[in-house]
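ugh ok so i messed up the first submission bc i forgot one of the chains. this is the corrected input, ALL of the components this time, i swear. 604 residues overall. if the numbers dont match what u have on ur side tell me asap before i send this to the collaborators (the ones from the other lab, u know who)
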Amino acid sequence: MHSAQIDQVRRFNRTVTQRVGVLHDHYLGRDRPIGEARLLWEIGGQGEDVRRLRERLGLDSGYVSRLLRSLEADGLVTVEPHPRDRRVRTVRLTDAGRAERATLDARSDELAGSLLEPLNEAQRARLVAAMAEVDRLLTAGTVTLDTVDPGHPDALYCLRSYFTELQERFETGFDPERSLLPDAGELTPPRGEFLVARLHGEPVGCAGLKLPPGAPAEIKRMWVAPRARRLGLGRRFLIELEARAARHGRTLLRLDTNKALTAAIGLYHSCGFQEVPAFNDEPYAHHWFEKRVTAPPAALQE
Amino acid sequence: MHSAQIDQVRRFNRTVTQRVGVLHDHYLGRDRPIGEARLLWEIGGQGEDVRRLRERLGLDSGYVSRLLRSLEADGLVTVEPHPRDRRVRTVRLTDAGRAERATLDARSDELAGSLLEPLNEAQRARLVAAMAEVDRLLTAGTVTLDTVDPGHPDALYCLRSYFTELQERFETGFDPERSLLPDAGELTPPRGEFLVARLHGEPVGCAGLKLPPGAPAEIKRMWVAPRARRLGLGRRFLIELEARAARHGRTLLRLDTNKALTAAIGLYHSCGFQEVPAFNDEPYAHHWFEKRVTAPPAALQE
DNA sequence: CGATTTCTCTGACTAGAGTCAGAGAATGCA
DNA sequence: TGCATTCTCTGACTCTAGTCAGAGAAATCG
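and heres the new structure output, hopefully the right one now
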């Protein structure tokens, strides 16, 4: 990390927090404390359980309760017990609450507009593009890769999404029964590993590593949620799995894929995988890849 | 302004304020309230008058006084009367204060580093580049163009800087006496106009428009401070002056320039100026430009 | 069925970040 | 010289944004 990079990041932080901060106070902190405004926003159109609000905003239960009393006193929300579990209480916006939320929304738009407003067309386009890039990369930096059991709810969510997507994208559809998929035991230590990527705690991708004794390691079930694409997550999975395979003493890593998954095929090429003849008879595979892996020298691990 | 742009800006605001905000609290709000930290930072290595601190941070005088008492009690600053005006008090960092400021500085670096840390080399480079672009364009959006009298201190500052720069950049040096410079009266209404660009209230550029009766309008003394370059300010000056010339009923706008000012020459070309034969005998000019101007249709003025 | 846990709420506090209204000293201006 | 102004400081407040320690109701577990 160069100090010129650090300096630029600091300049960015200063400019953005100043500019956005001032406007934020001006547009959004107008007639309601921002704690209340945030809560009002999070309740959403459908209503929400108090405990989930607390969780999402990371606030103390007493504090949330007090904020809700205040919103209730202003006639913006109603709080009633949850029908199935009467300990839990559900918050719902009243019509007045919905109107208030709509003005908050409009103010957010105004705030955004006021950043673009002084610029000409070309500058606006460049600013928005650069913001998208910053947004993407900062988000990418918060995605965590965790080893989990393939039976974990987050893993199951990813696998189900993965299968659904394969069914939609494969010309022939996809039937898990017909595929040479590993059973769960093959993706838990010592026979393998399973990784889940999470963004703000929500699962947004998975990848499995098979470590069959006496055979090359193999990547299975790699998937990235649509909303987490373009964050370099596929590449991160591959690098992580390569390192793990190497740590288990494997020198060859393999995978197979379907011709419909063009982005994945591009990724494999760009990550140094070589296309090779079929090494299995997976019915849904059209391409087979392999890569020699070695434990990276310590200096590059960082 | 498209709603897709607005949405992207809002997403950016959310991501950045969250990510940077959390880290900000973690790194900088550690052992000192951020009000004190900001003040400590603004005092700087040289010491500073209380009134200027107040001005720069936009704080209440009572509040600043209390913050200073607190910093003083911690042995971080000393406050003593200004030698020439004993109403004013000057704050100076003690050695302990300087040390504290250095740790704040280090923490800012850490904060910046922690944004880059989870990314790989290529991603870091892209993030930093995108941040620089956002920084530049947000800054550009806060630059104001104001009509001022050429005798105003900000105007004089710009003109002096302009002449100094010409002296350095012209092969032959530059002597204002030899040049066909307009006198100040030619740049005040009704014979002309003079604009100063300001960033956070500080002058960062100027441009003059001569409106000689019965002759084409002419641009003179256009200058942008080094720290405000690459913000599209030159183009903004030209557009603004074109509009003003048109509003005064002129249809032709002229200017001359020196061959050393290559960036300016590029700008004139790209803004639609055509190079023409010399229309004056300004000794320092090598290129002469003109452009037909018309009042822009209302739809484009926005 | 009783003990434990979960969920929400209330009351009592705290710290930070300011605001506002003078008071007192020094300086500037007519 | 005297009056107004400038500058800083103090005291007395306010509002946000929390935290912490229970209490009471409902649900769950063994």
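quick check: Residues 33-35, 59-60, 62-63, 66-67, 81, 85-88 of chain B lie near DNA strand C (CB under 10 Å from a C1'). that seems consistent at least. Chain B touches chain A through 47 residues (CB under 8 Å).
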